[in-house]
Amino acid sequence: QIQLVESGGGLVQAGGSLSLSCAASGRTFNTYACGWFRQAPGKQRELVASIAVTGNTNYADSVKGRFAISRDNAKNTVYLHMNNLKLEDTAVYYCAANPWRLDQQPDYWGQGTQVTVSS
Fold first, then answer.
1. Percentage of the chain surpassing pLDDT 70?
2. Residue 114, SS3 per DSSP
3. How far from chain centre, in Å, is Cα 91?
């Protein structure tokens, strides 16, 4: 079992950059697939980026080329680096993790961090 704590959200102008961090507790973090979900008001939650145990990454089409997910198993941390932010990126971002393979209903979630992109 692990616990996830996000940090790094905030207010940024369109075109700017922001990085999120997700610190995980537990000794077996390297056996968890991780991802970043987001949910904007009135919209469904969506998976924007994921990183497998192997380090392979996947991205939603809406963020490809702008967002980068990475992990540092030595620090039990997953990162989401966001560049060229757009107004539509405004949402609460959640870190999530699941043993070995991530799906749409991960077992573990962080508390969420607000990202607001202004014009």
1. 100
2. strand
3. 12
